[in-house]
Amino acid sequence: xxxxxxxxxxxxxxxxxxxxxxxxxxxxxxxxxxxxxxxxxxxxxxxxxxxxxxxxxxxxxxxxxxxxxxxxxxxxxxxxxxxxxxxxxxxxxxxxxxxxxxxxxxxxxxxxxxxxxxxxxxxxxxxxxxxxxxxxxxxxxxxxxxxxxxxxxxxxxxxxxxxxxxxxxxxxxxxxxxxxxxxxxxxxxxxxxxxxxxxxxxxxxxxxxxxxxxxxxxxxxxxxxxxxxxxxxx
Length: 234
What we know:
Elements: H1 6-26, H2 28-36, H3 48-74, H4 85-108, H5 149-152, H6 157-161, H7 166-190, H8 195-226
Helix pairs in contact: 1-8, 3-4, 3-7, 4-8, 7-8
């Protein structure tokens, strides 16, 4: 089957980046945060369903799926049986790599969560996540949305699955996107993140998957082209 060229996927990634930057410029983050919270804080912050199901439960399920994907490198199931071992390894490593990338950015970020803002009963002042190195007076470490990566980390599976099934790749992609948005909105309602945090997580995870796919396509084809045929020299 014909796969979408890397160039087209790269253009889409750049267009998505421009759209994401446009969202940042609208100031919509605070507007949405104010719809969920007030000076008294965020009513759903300690809601049992939000905490135990949408936060802790979703996170634990995601890590269980990561373990399952690594096990599937050796013992594949379902559509994964149609992938070779290298592709299954790429799928598992892409998910893990996306989570690590988001975590590294969060670790370096000085941006605090909405529930830390003075406007919502905290101590921090609002500072754009573009203001690298500028403290907002809060604990920081809130950009991008780490929890949403529990689902968005899987979007990179699209690049792998499209090799064997366009339908399976599309279902995988949109399931990951939908789940990531649901988790992101849940955290936003709790005051844990802004919408831009969720959108940036989606973009970072997609980009990690694309970069890994480009590396595999380049170096994989190079090793194939330079391999010595079995009948060479006979």
